Amino acid sequence: MAAVTAPMPAPNSGPAPSPASGDHPWAAAEKRLNRLVRAVALVEKMGNGLGTLAFTWATVVVLGGFSTDLRQDFWYATAIVFLEAFRVFSRESRSDDQLLFKTTGGVKLKRVVLGSGVLYYLNAVIVVVCFSNALVIITNHYFPLGPNKTLALAALLALVSKLEFSTYIEGVSSSGRNNVFATVFFRCIPIVALVLLAVGIIYLGDLQPGNALLPLMPLFASWIVYNLLVLSLQHYEQKFVQVTKMLCTVIFPLWVAISLVVAFKTLGLLILLSTALLGNIQIPVAIARIVLSSMRLFKVNGHHQGSSNEHLIPALKIFYIMVFFQGISYIMACMLETAFSFLFRRLLAKACGLGEEPEMKSINLYYEHAYDKCMQDGVLSQEDMKLVRFAVDSLSSNSHAQNLAAVRILYSLLKKTETTRSNTGLLVSEVTTSKNSVGTLISMLGWTEPEDQGIRLFAAEVIAKMAGNLRIVGIPGTVQMVSSLLDYDARASEVCINMEVPGYLSPSRIQALPVQVTGNNVLDTPKNFLQCMKNLISIPKEDEEFWMAKDSFPSQALEILEKLAHDLDNCAEISRATGLIAKIIGFMSYTIDTTNIPGPQKQLWTTSSLKLIIKLASTNGEIGMVLQQKISEQPFLLSNLAEILEDSCSSQYQLELVMGIIAKLAVDMEARQEIGSYQVFITKLVNAFLGRDQPSSMRKVAGEALSMLSMGNAKNFSAILEAIGPNFIDMKDMLMFDEYTYVTASLLQNVCALSQEKLSQLGSSKHLSSLLPVVFAKMMNRELEGKKLEALISLASQICKVFPQCFAQELESGLADIVQKLVATLNSSKKPSLEYPRMRRVIIEMTICILESCPHYATVFREKGMLAALFMVERTPSKVEKYRLFSGHVGVVPESGLPLLTLVARAKELVASTTPSP
User: Fold this and answer.
1) Which residues of the chain have pLDDT under 50?
2) Which pLDDT does position 904 carry in this prediction?
3) What is the predicted pLDDT for the residue at 138?
């Protein structure tokens, strides 16, 4: 089971939900739908109970006790008993139940979209009409139906409706887009059915050819006109063709409906409705129960008036009444389900952010699951039915549709909690507390079969949204699965862009969609009106953005890894992955084969990889050092970074990330040397640092990078100094601003520490001496402390070493206050800090530098208590002070100067001296 950490609230993110309002945004809609499910199940269970009771009553009481006295009621009772037995036995198989008697499928409203959808539906209606009439003709010819013709027609109608002609023809039409044979077959289905029906009517129905063909002429004419119109419009202007097709889709359904009623009267209307409405035989069988029971209920007294058994008539009445109300219960359940389920399912889909009709498949599966659970566990079961629990349980299903629905639901719910600022941690905990749920999601990342790409896509999105709260130590193979998303292939990427996920449009098809007209009048064109009225196509805006921004798996992998890097244990797993760092760095380069990927996607890859690398390079501790080492060892890293810096299309954010990476990697001495060999780095960093028009964030990170590069590296120092040139004076202005104080002081103290001769040759004494008033003023600021104060004291000490005379002159006026500041800071630094470990060292170095230049100031130091402060330092040595920079609790840059105790001894000697030093 994956470990989960509670997410920290983001700053300025608004108030967190209170415990009283801790429900999810979709909770109300979910409860509404669940109540409806319980109500439908309750009514159906009432019918089942009545059916079971009627079955028992009929077998034990009616047939068992009065079999010799029943007459015609014997056959009615037997038919009803067999019908009920058929229902009971079908319940043992879920597929049979859904096919035959399930209430949630009793009425199946087919959503017919405009365009080719109307054509395949009309074809299906024509085929059903012809097939039903053919069955009636053949049956009546060989087996005369007699007085029970109505019941026979109802039975045939129910059976024909279950053949699902509309579904088969829709499949043929879909496959026919790229298949000539399928297209011809699709177009010719209706005419073949009409011809066969005509032949059957002529030869079996004993009708004259003219009378037989007359009812079929409207259907034949509609088929001919529609196809000729579609073919003839291929060479006309696109707008005219679209308007004409839209008008045809309104006119022809009405024409076919009227033709059916005129040609076949009641049967035609019933078949038309059954093709669109009947999902199974629950309603026909319920009607049969009502008809059979009501037919006999009012004739019982007449048929058995002279019976010698006084209990026969009451027994039959009780039986027929139970059967009658059983049928009524099933009809009521179907009506209740039909009237409200679609609305409540749509409201739940909207509350979850699942969008329109294609995405309703996920909610429909949940609805069926909730119904089945109520039927199995009981309406009054205390176990809550939750959408999240359904999605989590469906992850381990063997059904491809349920897997897709599960990841789609989880993705939408996680996105909904983000947009509504709800408690994302609560939802994540619900997902991760289920056994193996996260492991299953991660394993889906390795599903590379074409039919599994939709599941893989949404699984990656779900993990990306939860990755910030996950620890993957207990899930073996996680990093390898995520790494598989980075296996970029130009051909595979082209497949991904054109990938068809069931229920969703691919990015290429979204891009090909016409631009929606957003005028004030929706009646500007018939097309716009029909789109509004019929909801021609529905792609939720959120999913369109999803596909356009996430048309490849590498983006998702980089996002997942970046969020996983929040945890040190996760970083350890990442550091152990073979070849992962190289893959990440490869996406920085524009030279990889990205022929099929648009420019914005390439930019997204570059930015994501930079963000991930700087996140990994910023990791603290020993794991961070390992990651930095692995990153530095990559042969293409620096060339890719240089390429981004020199590219005019690179964004400001990308440039900042590159500079931040340089600053993090420059901690290592060898890395500093290698980075400095690229002249472009020094030039770009100096220009960004000194550029007055650059944003402050970029100037700070550039200054940090320059400071690290100049640390103990004379070659880099020379290059930096040459790049600065006459702009050295600008650094004085930067030192005045608090946001630049630390990076500027750190850079200057590194420059001063490296070469007094070089600075003298460049005539920098005037510039450096002009910095002293600013440095002293900043030092005396009471609000300034920590690493900024450390950097300023170190800078003052280095200036004193390089230009002691200038330093002494500037120091004379404020000596007492500066010494007091040094002593107070030293006394307050009894325990060195990992953030600024050099504080005591730089104070002692400045003390030594001042007293070596001006020995007569020793009296002031003694009066201010420096000697006691030095004794305190001598008594409290610390290993922290052996390093000048830490990564977490691990020292990464060792101190290169004299040991601290040696400096303390020298400082005590100078402070205690009463005579000027020679």
Assistant:
1) 1, 4-22, 95-97, 109-117, 176-177, 490-550, 917-918
2) 92
3) 66
Q: Are residues 225 and 77 in the same domain?
A: no
Contact 742, 787 (CB under 8 A): yes
What is the sign, positive or negative, of the torsion defined by CA atoms of 222, 223, 225, 230? Answer: positive
CB 441 within 8 A of CB 407: yes
Give the closest residue to 900 by CA, choosing from 826, 850, 835: 826
Residue among 25, 543, 43 nearest 341 (CA): 43
Q: What is the pLDDT of residues 834-860, one digit of tens each?
A: 998 999 999 999 999 999 888 888 999
243 shares its domain with 300: no
CA distance 555 to 716: 36
Query: Looking at residue 645, what is its pLDDT?
Result: 92
Assess if residue 118 is contained within a domain: yes
Say if residue 258 is in the same domain as residue 302: no
Say what angle helices 27-56 and 72-90 make with each other, to 10 degrees. Answer: 140
Asked if residue 122 belongs to a domain, the reply is yes
- Closest by alpha carbon to 734, among 747, 744, 746? 744
Domain endpoint, select from 227, 257, 278: 278
**For 798, what's the count of Cα atoms within 13 Å in the CB-facing half-sphere?**
23
- Long-range contacts of 187-195, Cβ-Cβ distance < 8 Å, separation of 24 or more: 187/227, 189/123, 189/126, 189/127, 190/122, 190/123, 190/126, 190/127, 190/219, 190/223, 191/220, 191/223, 193/126, 193/127, 193/130, 193/131, 194/126, 194/130, 194/219, 194/220, 194/223
CA distance 341 to 224: 39
Examine the domain organization and report whether 899 and 818 are in the same domain.
Answer: yes
> Tokens standing for 309?
């058994």
- Assigned domain for 273 exists: yes
Which two structure tokens, joined as six digits, stand for 456?
Answer: 């893989």
Pair (263, 128) in one structural domain: yes
Contact present, 793 and 838 (Cβ < 8 Å): no
Parent domain of 837: 808-918
User: In terms of DSSP bridges, do strands 470-471 and 883-887 run parallel, antiparallel, or are they unpaired?
Assistant: unpaired
Residues 241, 285: one domain?
A: no
Residue in 453, 459, 451, 454 with CA at minimum distance from that of residue 478: 459
Domain count, the chain: 3
Q: What is the torsional sign of CA 20, 21, 24, 29?
A: positive
Alpha helix segments (H runs only) across 91-216: 94-100, 116-142, 149-161, 165-175, 180-204, 209-213
- Residue 688 has a pLDDT of 92
DSSP letters spanning 619-642: --HHHHHHHHHHHHT-TTHHHHHH
- Cα torsion at 696, 699, 704, 709 (round to 10°)? 180
The pTM assigned to this predicted structure is 0.74
φ/ψ of residue 619, rounded to 5 = -65, 135
Distance CA 854, CA 676 (A): 39
Answer whether residue 823 is part of any domain: yes
Note the pLDDT of residue 362: 85
Q: Are 256 and 290 contained in the same domain?
A: no
Q: If 0-12 CB within 10 Å is exposed, 13-18 middle and 19+ buried, where does residue 916 land?
A: exposed
Residues 850 and 887 in one domain: yes
Q: If you search the block for the tokens 């300034």, which residue do you land on?
A: 784
Report residue 792 CA to chain centroid gap.
48
pLDDT at 515: 40
Tell me: the pLDDT tens digits for 350-379? 888 876 555 678 888 888 888 888 887 777
What is d(CA 147, CA 805) in angstroms, rounded to the nearest whole number?
A: 127
Query: Of 298, 320, 346, which marks where a domain is finished?
Result: 346
Instruction: State the Cα angle at 789 between 788 and 793, rounded to 5°.
Output: 120
Which three-class secondary structure state does DSSP give residue 467? helix
> Measured between alpha carbons, how far is 747 from 356 in angstroms, rounded to an integer?
58
- Return the closest-CA partner of residue 708 out of 752, 657, 746: 746
DSSP letter at 353 equals T
